[in-house]
Amino acid sequence: MKHLILKTSAFLLLAGSLALRAEEIPLVGNIPGRNTTTLAGEWSYIVDVQEEGYYDYRMNPTPWGFFQNAKPQTPKDLIEYDFDKSDRMVLPSDWNTRDQRLFFYEGTVWFKKDFTWHPAEGRRTLLYFGAVNYEAHVWVNGKQAGHHVGGFTPFNMDITDLVVDGNNFVVVKVDNKRHAEDVPTQIFDWWNYGGITRDILLVDVAPVYVENYSLLLDRKDYGLLHWKVRLNAPVAGKRVRLSVPELKVDKTVVTGADGTASLDVKARPELWSPDNPRLYEVCIDLDGETVKDAIGFRSIETRGKQILLNGKPIFLKGISIHDEKAFGGGRANSAEDAAVRLGWAREMGCNFVRLAHYPHNEYMVREAEREGFLVWSEIPVYWTIAWTDPGTYANAQAQLRDMIERDVNRANVIIWSIANETPHSPERDSFLGRLATYARSLDNSRLISMAMEVTSASNYHNRLQDNMHEFVDVVSFNQYIGWYRDVDDAPKMTWEIPYEKPVIVSEFGGGARAGLHGDKGERWTEEFQENLYIQNTAMLDRIDGLSGTTPWILKDFRSPRRVLPGVQDYYNRKGLVSDDGRKKKAFYVMKAWYEGK
Ligand code: GCB
Questions:
Q1: Pairing of β 200-205 and β 124-129
Q2: Which residue in 22, 361, 462, 555 has the fewest CB atoms around it within 10 Å?
Q3: Which of 552, 558, 576 to mutate for ligand 1's pocket (most ligand atoms within 8 Å of CB)?
């Protein structure tokens, strides 16, 4: 990554004369509630293994790159690419499942789309991407518009000065090569789907607009809402109006010199909960322009070893989920797909989903909110990150910030998780400590957690010991008794979690190939997995302070680490549902256990 950044800045210097740089701007909140035009549909694409379209033959950035979308002007001109004669791909999507040749591909693909646009006088145009995995360079009409790193968080840029009235084109260079300094790092147990995987939108805004806002219920006083609003510019004296008609709320604030304002508003909403996922229509109005939202109100806190939702203890009956389509592989990005996966979770008796291991698409979070599922949301600080690299920290922090900025008003999101199974060291503690403190500074209305690892004190005694316990509200850990160690050990296990905090077992489980039957001692059979779940749930009942579980995982998911022919075939088989939607026997063990909770 480091060398890439250097090359990029070299490129900026070099191309400075030809590239008018559009402004990269902070993430704009509630994009679905704004005036948008989709750029979804067919895009031309060029697979560029050697980054021919970006570097010359000395590996110096070239001003003649593919972003120019050049055409020969005379018959003798040499131009060795042509977007318009290249293949088309329907976006948003991942290239791995759209083009068979790209199933394992990790590298650069260039995308181009023509669009017509008629910007109104005095308005501004933003270009928004729901997610691009992993690194994106964006040009509009051949001019650089922005650059983004991180595969699961949204970003936007102001392209007002780059678009013209009429025909325009946008080019995006997407690169999903792995680097040790990235977040996630070089190895991870899921498919590295490349591409523009989430919504691509043009957003029409006034020069001064509401950049983001939050409207949250007080943790203790259920008759009090905290409203905060932030403009895109430090403009004082702007009147911003909040209305929630069903609560008879109609309030106006005036922004200060920094373009922000806040107000405590008295109102007593019906509380959002899994049993009553009540949402209120909310309008935020500035100079006659309205941003609409549907917001729920709830309180989440801990007391000793309990998690309290709206002041009452709740057991989180959860399931871990990857952001992969319900059937087969491929990145998910629709409410319909979310509804299928959440339907399975509902059938299992869940009230909670762990959206692992990175922020999921916004449809998923909103659908879960509408249907009454509580959510654990996570950033991909996974396994071994480059703990001492300041660029890695900045990257992780930016992903955390944008995850929070996007979903700050989602009532169902109750936990921000900052890491998964990270090896202990002073450098890791300092990295994660900073991240946790940062998360709290942005949003102290939710709980902070992370998936830790248990350090065994003796063979059958498990003790959780992690310096990060001070930084989290909920201590969570993953354990694989029965899979990465013998299932017969489960009844002998004792557990010690020496912290006065609620406990979530954020992973347990094992693999089975759907339809493969045999003895419970035979690995990969449904019976093996079923027995593992029977043993594990019995064991979990002996954990003091257990406040929830999110077994691994709802559905078989694609992973390049899972190569066993005839069994895995590049799927992690720990799903309780197969990749083609069949429920395995263990699904019903979880269902029965949750029925008893
Ligand atoms: C874990 C990881 C998860 C893996 C899982 C497994 O501990 O957190 O990402 O997929 O184990 O299947 O081994």
A1: antiparallel
A2: 462
A3: 552
